[in-house]
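User: Fold this; tokens only.

Assistant: Input:
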Amino acid sequence: MNKLFQKISMIAGTLVATVLIMNACVNYDFDIPDPLDIPVGEAKTIAQVRQMFFDNNDQAIRFTEDISIHGVITMDGSSGNIYRNAFIQDGTAAINLRLMSPGGLYQGDSVRVNLKGTRLDAFNQMLQIDSVHAGNNVVKLKTNVHLEPLDTDIITLLTDASMQGRLVRLNNVEFHPNNLGTPFADSENLMALNTTLRDCSGSEIIVRTSGYASFADSLVPGGNGSLVAVLAQYNNDRQLFIRDLSEVNMEGPRCSEQDNEDVITLAEVRQLFNEGVTSIPAGMSIVGVITSDRENGNITGRNAYLEDATGAVALRFSANHTFNLWDRITIFAGTLELSEFNGLLQINNIPIGNASLSETNIIIEPEETTIQNILDNMDTFESKLVRIPNATISGGTTFAGDRTLSDGTASISLFTRNDATFANENVPQGTITLTGIVSIFNTPNIIIRNLDDIQQ
């Protein structure tokens, strides 16, 4: 019995020793100190910290003492537009925080950051506090704090170094016409893209969007309005980071459309020509929607049809243009030639640089009418988009060339270029509703844009 008790005691002792050894091997230090253990040390404003870098001849500083800044996180990585970064701002300035790992700090967090162990430096001229550990360096004081963006202008952002890192709002701004209707970034290839924001004075600044941003696929808006963003810098380029698309509000008229005294309607253009005027008055612009479809080839690359609420006109550019069906454009038209080509009134020889895209997908409802009404009122219907019900097509089996369009009231030529994508398609049999543009080539004709213009 004694031997059995001794053996049991030895086994129990071994198990206890094993448990103690195992516990000694486990690291219970998770590097998340109690916030109360993060000392304050010397309190400095963000402006004072930034000045330390400049006073050190723009050389990096490693913080070895307890120095703290207080501020509100104005942008975090939640949207994917920045990664392992956060921007912090107080009442004096702002700066970028380069984090040891993503997460931990969120927009609206009011925090105290102890700088001990971090490094103040400039990454491609963007001042930052590097190697910030959200657990070891940061004390959260409050959440969901709203910081109102500073209303400013593009010139100030480009010239005032103290604006770097700040949350700002720009008003009466718009994206460059070349960016309209394109994605903010390339999400498929996860590539960042730059778009250009400008004001009505022509000042421009870059808007930088990551391919990882949640709104990368969203299309650049075509109107004018306001934008809230954080100002960053990459070498000599000042650039804006959007936090959320809800802070991009651009539904107003673009700069070129805001002074109505300088915009001439298409009805007024036609009236000028009828009165013998052969050029548009100096300083005037025209604004309208492209109703022709260059992509389907039933119009040459230099031509287009433009319509506004008062009328329509043909356009002849100096070179092939890139405007698509339903694009709203502005043309600086002062002194441009007004002339007829085989009976069709056109604004002739328009330099490509005189035209800019304002918005996309602005759909115009065609005016429903009869062929007889068109023929009786060509000055009204010339170049306009119309819908003709109860129509038939005759004179050939395919669209290419001249065909006859009839609706019981009269007949008119239906013309299709050989280069049109649908030129060799069979014409429909029976009664149709046809949408097309009223044109003239010595005599009146109708041109369709694509096969969607025919409904049976």
